[in-house]
Specification:
With 291 residues, the protein is α+β, with helices and mostly antiparallel strands. Helix content is 15%, strand content 35%.
């Protein structure tokens, strides 16, 4: 089941409507878990069981659950942390360094019976009755006040909220759910990279980003979070082939001591961010992928 994107103004049309419920939009890895086999499957169909051995939902009967695997940092889900769990290598270290939790919000099968055709209101009752929450597996809470849910998400700088009609059946690949996000997503050109530190000393610290406008290429800041190990290696390998001694911006935004390694702006990346600052910089940017 997928979700379409709506604006905060749209919330006014459904907030307070008893047919709708609202939940936190978690920033992690969507996952289906079969409690009978123990298999964890990603949205793309990849088997992630070996990546998350601590995710073992306890249920009164075998069932198939839908939810989000997340990692918490400072009380909020942190996409960068969960990206470090994208491989099953060094799993004991990764479990200790980036512990995962499973936020369960739906049930698709109960003891061999397909329940996806029932209304969400009934599925939620089944889920509450069968799931035994613990320190790692949680029953995702909900509220009936959409505007209050969004206000709380804004105050706590969360990604946004999910809005669900209680009458809807679970239909794979259908966008019957609605997501209202605080953050924005856009495409930017990689114009350089800063020196990395620690375990990223041999790669990069952050990517220097630019946006093509009517006035030419404009500096919009850097992005240094959201990458997994494989993405870091692939990006630095590509960027090293396009190193350029010249700054691509009309005015260099860096001092000599901060100078990044410039590259020819050819790589386009997708970045999630909360908003633009008054000076045109990205606020809370996070890498999402390469175009």
């Amino acid at each position: 089941m997928l979700a379409r994107l709506e604006t905060p103004e749209w919330l006014k049309t459904v907030s307070g409507n008893p047919e709708w419920v609202f939940q936190v939009k978690y920033d992690g890895d969507r996952a289906i878990v079969d409690t009978k086999s123990g298999k964890i499957q990603s949205r793309s169909g990849k088997d992630k069981t070996a990546n998350f051995p601590e995710i073992v939902p306890k249920t009164l009967k075998p069932c198939i659950l839908d939810g989000e695997i997340v990692a918490y940092k400072n009380g909020k889900t942190d996409f960068n942390s969960i990206q470090h769990r994208s491989t099953s290598s060094d799993i004991q270290f990764r479990m200790a360094e980036y512990p995962a939790a499973y936020e369960v919000f739906d049930i698709l099968d109960l003891d061999g019976t397909d329940v996806s055709g029932y209304a969400l209101s009934y599925r939620m009752k089944l889920l509450q009755a069968v799931l035994v929450p613990d320190a790692t597996v949680h029953l995702a809470p909900y509220t009936t006040d959409g505007e209050l849910a969004f206000q709380n998400a804004t105050a706590n700088q969360l990604e946004g909220i999910m809005c669900k009609n209680l009458n809807t059946r679970y239909q794979q690949d259908r966008r019957e759910w609605v997501k209202v996000k605080l953050s924005q997503t856009d495409h930017f050109l990689v114009c350089g990279y800063t020196k990395g530190t620690g375990w990223r000393a041999s790669t990069f610290g952050a990517l220097v980003l630019g946006k093509m406008t009517d006035n030419g290429l404009v500096y919009v800041g850097e992005v240094g979070t959201g990458f997994n190990d494989m993405q870091i290696d692939q990006i630095i390998t590509t960027l090293r082939l396009s190193i350029n001694s010249l700054c691509p911006f009309a005015a260099n935004p860096y001092t000599f001591s901060q100078m990044p390694t410039w590259v020819t702006p050819a790589m386009t990346v997708i970045v999630k961010f909360l908003e633009y600052t008054n000076s045109g910089m990205l606020r809370f940017p996070a890498f999402k992928g390469v175009v």
